[in-house]
Design brief:
single chain, 97 residues, mainly alpha, 78% helix, globular
Length: 97
């Protein structure tokens, strides 16, 4: 159950950071931050890393805790990124110009 909350809260945070108007004005001032915030996978790694430490989510028990949270964040971000690509491909609207 904690993993479901981890994914849902992470996705909502990523969506909020990418769509909130005042936050957009802040990160548009830097090209590095613009590229970071527009990439689901890149922003997801940082969001899930913070959530992993806050929620104490660690999937692999064979690694040290800090490394385990980092690997978990990268895996969660990648899985969510692939899911989003599939969702947009299946249900998204394509405009031809």
């Amino acid at each position: 159950m904690i993993l479901v909350l981890y994914f849902v809260i992470g996705r909502l945070l990523i969506w909020f950071l990418q769509t909130a108007g005042p936050i957009k004005m802040l990160y548009r001032k830097s090209s590095f931050l613009t590229e970071l915030f527009e990439c689901d996978f890149c922003l997801g790694c940082w969001v899930f890393l913070g959530l992993g430490f806050a929620m104490k989510v660690a999937i692999l028990d064979v690694l040290p805790y800090i490394l385990d949270v980092i690997v978990t964040a990268i895996m969660a971000s990648f899985c969510l990124h692939v899911f989003i690509i599939g969702w947009r491909t299946q249900y998204g609207t394509t405009y031809l110009e």
